[in-house]
Amino acid sequence: MFRIWAKVMKEDHIVKQYDYNREEKFTYANFFRYLSEICDTLDVPTPVLLKTHIFNYAKFNRVVFRPSDFMETPPFDKLVLENLV
Q1: CA–CA gap between residue 79 and residue 16 (Å, rounded)
Q2: Hey, which of 23, 28, 66, 72 has its CA 20 to 30 A from 5?
């Protein structure tokens, strides 16, 4: 089981949040699927997932998606995913 805390931030305030949890084992191969499900639930666009995003999540248990990571301009400053241990 794993949990990811997703936060949509605007001007350093949380405007939306979601606690994503799954009973299956976490795998980095499925990280885009987790990200897509989180974004669908929060009703925000899905960012482009790069290798550096996965490395940051693996190393720091946290990844930040900025407006430049989205194909369209999002109505927020950043999307933050944190691993809840």
Answers
A1: 10
A2: 72
